[in-house]
Every structure is written in structure tokens, then in C-alpha cells.
Amino acid sequence: MNRIVRLAPALLLAAAACAAPAPTGQGGTPASKVGGSVTFVATTDPDTLDLHQTSNPVSSTIFGWIYEPLIYQDLDNTYKGLLAESWAVSSDNRAITFKLRKGVTFTDGSPFNAEAVKFTFERLVRVGAKSPIFETFKNIASAEAKDETTFVLNMKEPSAPIFHDLQTAYAGILSPSAVKAANDNIGRAAVGTGPYKLKEFQTGQQITLERNADYKWPPALFANRGAPYIQELRYRVIPEPATQLAALDAGEVDVLGLAAKDLARYSADGRFKIYDSFTYGLTYLGFDAKRPPFDNAKLRQALSRAVNKSEIVQVVFENKLAKVSCCPIAESIQGYDPKLKDFELGYDVAKAKAGLDELGYKAGADGLRATPDGKPFKPVLYTSTSDTHGKISTLLQAQFKAVGVDLQIKQLEAGALLAATPKAEHDLYLNGYSWNEPDMFSLFLSCDRIASSNRVLYCNPELEALIRAGRTELDQGKRMKIYFDAQKLTMQEAPWQPLYMPVSKTAINVKIQDLKQGQAGGLYWHDAWVKQ
What we know:
By secondary structure, the chain is an alpha+beta fold. The protein folds into 2 domains: about 1-10 and about 25-240 and about 510-530, Periplasmic binding protein-like II (D-Maltodextrin-Binding Protein, domain 2), CATH 3.40.190.10; about 280-505, Dipeptide-binding Protein, domain 3, CATH 3.10.105. Helix content is about 25%, strand content about 25%. It is built from 16 helices and 22 strands. Strands 11, 12, 13, 14, 15, 16, 17 and 18 form an 8-stranded mixed sheet that branches. A hairpin with a 5-residue loop joins strand 2 (about 70-75) and strand 3. Helix 9 packs antiparallel against helix 11 and helix 15 packs antiparallel against helix 16 (about 475-495). It is globular. Mean pLDDT is about 90; it is low at about 1-25.
């Protein structure tokens, strides 16, 4: 649910228990807080606001305020009902029955009901090939509107990741009457049930959304139980970073993500507050588990011990734009469990050296190690040509040298890197992933992805069984236990050494009050308001 994970207005606490209630506007919101505008930056022009015809992140950010899905991801990353009050999963995990919220209307005045949900998902399957959730919905066998408030989704095969996809903006529910009125051309005629509606779409310049005064069904996590407070949201199209900063300085833009070089300046500027948030993913050092000698888990474990993650975060990111990661699932993603830190192969030079000694990698007079058969041990690290990866690689080279390993670095353009890694030409691999779902295991560590996105070529039947179980278990408690076990196994086998989770820094004008943040730092806007 894009609008929640990004930004929102909040209630003032009463000065005293006996204070008179504040006057309210339509929808029960305090009238004194309603009004004002917030301007964001859009780096490119949205191609369309038809959520079934795009995977453009700028488009999804904007239509995430207009459309709403059946469920949303709460502050703690668990799934809760939004347009659906509740749901039940069948015993064979192939059907999900949703009980829908009553009294919800689209901004064109038409009612939200099970027929609208059925219409939306059938349209997605029919015309949504450009949507990032299209592959998941191809698994839908049928959609049924049992009555006004009962909707059943029948799947060909059980699919746990469907909950992740159902909470995205791309799974927002359409108004059938609005789609028909626009002759199916809703790219500039977006109509949903959300807290905002499309006011103006100026190509290449600005998109303006206006408050839906009739909105009164926000997620339970918000204090504001009515319509949002902020009257207008504007997205200005500004591609150039320098121009974006100039607009922020001039007060023409209120919210902007910052580069590291700009942090000190804006942190000291009293006009702005800096918000931290974690990205959905992490950067890792991988070992080519198909290529000898790195097919030996003990060697991978020993070298993992040589990695000083804290030094990487300090030297490369100045402890500002990254946070050390212990585990394969990033802290920002559902499935992360701090208890797994007990199984981390933490930085320990003595254990790294002992592990290499045990395997027969002996150091010579120059301090550098040779393989057990006496050849120089010079493993090659493949990574991208990015400046950040170059700095990290140089640090890793020094850290490996401290345990007697002469690490070589090979930086390749992104296309060449992606082409080379499936061929098992590399020994080590520095890169990362971005995916807000614990099923990232199937994308990056499963056997059937070795020719594509599994860049460390690791295939373990035990992990494969856990991956299959995680994909088909719809009970979230049981599913999280599966991913705990999958992470524990992966940490012990060490095809990856997780390094850090990137952190984004956003400057926000201090006129915006009462933003709420989740545990991953995501900004929630429904309680926010603009100080006039």
C-alpha cells in the first residue's frame, strides 16, 4: 500500500481531559487541521495512472493515494485488513475468502462491493501483463462475488506471496462504473476508494491530488479516523538533482530524498527535519558455491569471519546511509528475526585464520596463503563498476589480506556482470537484492534460479524444501517459522555473508507535523497536517 509506506497528517492531543472537543470537518476530522498542501518530487513523468498498465514506481507512488487494496502492511510488517475486514484460508490453501468492509464508496459515488473486486482482478488477469503482480495473479483459477461483502479468490496452486502482492498499490480496487465511463482508458481518469482523488495531470510538469472529504475508513493504526488533513498533494516533475535541491531551498518542494553529500547541509538547516528509512533489501558478499574450492562450506565460513561489516558501514557510509545486517532477510522485511543474530558468522580474525589453517591454506613467508596443493590462493571478487562497490571491494581486499588471503577485484559493467555470473567464472560476488517479501529466497537462492537471479549458484535440497514450504504456507505464523529455519540454514552454510542494509535520508519541511514512522522507518501520512 504505497501511500502508507511513504508518507501522512495526525491528531493533536487534548490539552486536558476536560477540554472541549475541537470543531470537526466532514468525516470527523478537526477542522483546524484541514488544509495546506505538500509538494513531492517526481523524477520522471508517470506514464499512466492505470494500475494494470505499468510497473513505473513514480506512477505507483501517485496512484497509491487514489486506489486502495484489500489489505495493508502494518507498522510491524504484518498484514491487516483495509477494504477487507478479515479473511479465511481454506484447508488446502487454495482459496481465500474475504469479508469486505461495508459503507465504502468510490470517489465517483459508486459503491465498493465484491463485484468491484471481481471486476478488478479479472481485468488485471486480462490486460495486466505490464503489472509487477501479473505473474502472481496468473495463478488465479477464478474470482467469485458470493454476495455484496463476500469475495473468494480461488488459486490453481497455494501461493503465500499473494499476500505481499495483495497489499501493493498495484492491487488497488477499481470502480467498474468509472472504468466503463472512460471506455477502459483510465490512465488519466483514475478513480478509487482512497483518501485522495486526481485533480489535475499536467504532462511533464505536475500531478495534483485533492483530499477525499468523504473518506472515513483509514487503517486502524491511525488516530485520525476520518479524511486526511492535508488538502492537496502535488508531484512536481524535476529530473535533475541540482534543480530538485534548488526547489527544496526555495520552498517549492517539501519532501526530498538526499544524497550523502547533502546530509550535513540539510541536517543543520532548521527548515527541515531528516527522516531515516530502510530500503527493502541488503548488500551481501556471495561465494560461488558451484565453483571449487568455494563449494566447501567450511571455506565459506572461514572467509565470512574475515569480513568486518562495521568497518564497511563506517568507512564507506560514515554510519549514515547503511546499517549492518546479520541475516539474509533484511531488518525492513517481514521474516527478519533478531534471534538469528546468534547464528551469525561474525567478524573474528582468529577464527577465520583457524578455519583456513584447518583446511590446509597455509601462509608463506610473505604472510599470504596457498591452496592445500601449494598454488597461490588468489580468489577473484566480481562486482559492478559503481563507486560504492569499488570502495567496499577495496576494504574487503584489505580485510582478507589480514587473514592471509590475496583477494583480486574485477569490476564489470552491470550487463557484463549479470551475463558472467551464471557461468560460474567468479569466486566471490558483491551485490545486493531489493525485494519486500521473504520469498526472496526463491528468487536469489533457489536451485531453479541458478541460471538467472541466483548469482552464487547455491543449491541445497534442504533449503529447497523450505523454500517450497514457504511459498505454499498461508498461515503467517507457520510461514515465519519456515523462513527462520531457512535463514538459520543459510547462515550456517554461508553462500552469502550479509553486509548492510541501505538507509535513505529524506528532508521534510518542518511545517509538516505528526508524521508517523514504522519500524523500518517508513513514513505514514494519514495523521500528518500542515502547520499554517
